[in-house]
Write a structure and sequence with these properties.
The chain has about 260 residues and is an alpha/beta fold. It has 2 domains: about 110 residues, Periplasmic binding protein-like II (D-Maltodextrin-Binding Protein, domain 2), CATH 3.40.190; about 100 residues, 3-Layer(aba) Sandwich (D-Maltodextrin-Binding Protein, domain 2). It is built from 10 helices and 12 strands. A hairpin with a 2-residue loop joins β9 and β10. α2 packs antiparallel against α10.
């Protein structure tokens, strides 16, 4: 009898705690929100990883669209329903902020990108980039320099090397750095200038051969994130902006070869 009475007392003692936990669960679920994010194509792989842990840790959902920063600029100006932009440069976010599309003070650098000359063939690209002078290839993939900052960096690199005019007839131009990568990955182009993050993970080159372009060959590829005015009242948008600056996200960003 005493044992039954003790169990009964414990049952009633735990009831308020269990009820409170249930309420917290309901509250957390009801607070979950969705954020639409425009992501520069070079940041595809790391952002997909970050999104998984962001959703698991916060309960929010991130809907990702990948493409060229210049194209996203035009879409946002024309009313595209994005709440966050992760650009491939700093100029586009600054321009959007000046034009009133960005929340004041809601801009920061989430990564500094690196340009790489890459081929799927293991022995084609040497670690100094001499292959560009030696030739022996028919096509060189580059991203549209007017839309993609990595394309602009490629043009600056070739100009510095004095090879722009010589190699321009071999160009295969991608609309963004994602398409440029596909040209090389499918071997429709023997080599091309892509983002290091596309061919690098966990501290090593994933396949093929590559030359990491020295940072002084082009302007820094400073990649800024902004909270757009359309996301000012979106809990998931503000949570994502905070999450990108946290240790978990930064560890993933570093693993793909970016500087911080």
């Amino acid at each position: 009898m005493k044992t039954r009475f003790t169990r009964l007392i414990r049952h009633f003692a735990l009831a308020p705690l269990l009820f409170g936990m249930a309420l917290c669960g309901v509250s957390s679920a009801s607070a979950a929100a969705e954020v639409s994010v425009a992501v520069a194509a070079n940041f595809t792989a790391p952002m997909q990883k970050i999104t998984k842990i962001f959703e698991a840790d916060t309960g929010h959902k991130a809907l990702l669209a990948f493409g060229a920063t210049g194209a996203f600029y035009a879409q946002i100006k024309n009313g595209a329903p994005f709440q966050v932009l992760l650009a491939a440069d700093k100029e586009t976010p600054a321009r959007l902020e000046k034009e009133g599309f960005v929340m004041a003070g809601a801009r920061f650098t989430y990564a500094v990108g690196k340009l790489v000359l890459w081929s799927k063939r293991p022995s084609l690209v040497d670690n100094k980039g001499y292959v560009l002078r030696q030739g022996g290839f028919d096509k060189l993939a580059v991203a549209n320099p007017k839309l993609a900052p990595y394309g602009a960096a490629a043009m600056e690199t070739l100009t510095k090397l004095g090879l722009l005019a010589q190699l321009q007839p071999k160009f295969v131009e991608g609309a963004n750095i994602g398409q440029t990568y596909q040209f090389v990955a499918s071997e429709n182009a023997a080599l091309g200038f892509v983002a290091l993050s596309q061919v690098y993970a966990d501290g090593r080159l994933t396949e093929g051969s590559a030359w990491i372009v020295p940072a002084n060959f082009h302007a820094p590829i400073q990649q800024d994130a902004v909270l757009l005015t359309t996301g000012k009242d979106n809990a998931a948008a503000t949570a994502l902006m905070t999450y990108l600056q946290g240790d978990k996200a930064r560890a993933i960003i570093r693993a793909y070869g970016y500087d911080l």
